[in-house]
Amino acid sequence: MLFAAGTPPVHATDSEDPMTDSNQSRTTDEFELQAHRAGRGHWTENSLHATGRSLDTGVGAVEVDTQLTRDGVVVVWHDSTLQADKCRDTGPVTDGDPAYPYVGDHLRDLTLEQIQSVDCGFQPAPGFPDQEVVTGHRIAPLSEFLALARERGAESMWWNIEIKIEDPSDAAERNLHTDAVLQEVYAAGDPGRTQIQSFDWAVLDRVAVTAPEVRLGALATAKNPSGAGQNPQEVARRGYDVWVPNHTIPSEDDIAEAHDLGLKVVPWTVNDASDMQRLMDWGVDGLITDYPWQLREIMAQRGMSLPSRYPAV
Length: 313
Known about the structure:
CATH class: Alpha Beta
Shape: globular
Pfam family, one: GDPD
Protein name: Glycerophosphodiester phosphodiesterase
Domain GP-PDE: 31-299
Number of domains: 1
Order of helices and strands: EHEEHHEHEHEHEHEHEH
Distance between the termini: 40 Å
GO biological process, one term: lipid metabolic process
CATH topology: TIM Barrel
GO molecular function, one term: phosphoric diester hydrolase activity
Largest sheet: 9 strands, mixed
């Protein structure tokens, strides 16, 4: 039984073989301009406002991160904890709440109501002094992001949803988080325009079994102890669709090899114009950037087809 709209995903075991075939039907031939954390170089990261502005700008995909709350709601936020350099408490949701103060706590240990009482839009994020602050930003459920794109009629835009797993050894928690994200994606009717990516490739194996319409992105970093993600062979062997390496990893030959293996290559997080130009010259299929405006300008200068804009009506 596969995952279908309105039904929960089937609970596959970690031992199941996810796929044996390439999934190129889930790819797009257009160069993918992806707004990292919805465009955190320009606006407060992972916010509905940033997503709306990215839709105004015209991006091929909005990349967001997900966490799971104590009451089982998928929310869009990068960090597993509420960090003091991004968020500040405004008061307990109930008198004498023993969990208060909430800043410093794991999102997994807080309810949606507790999380949304916290102000995560009061200053620019560290390292982004020119970021437009979304005053009073509250962390929002993934469902509201998906609804925003539907309201804008963003038919050609993709979602790139990262599932953040803090403890890869906790299979039950990983499966719960993954299934909850897929439930939202299918409820929104967006599986064919969704990529799930993760550094924990067991997430991708589960998605491959339960949600075959969804594209699979294998995140890789030079810090991976196994080093498995630092070349495309393992990505292809496991049947994933997109190699998503840190932009410092791939050489021009690596990119060519990935293409020969039937993979797309979309590095992260590429914020320097010279790096963008170099990787585009090497033939990458897209770039994940904090600065979608900048990448869009470079695409225009190169005479490339630009993603559609979906402004608010």
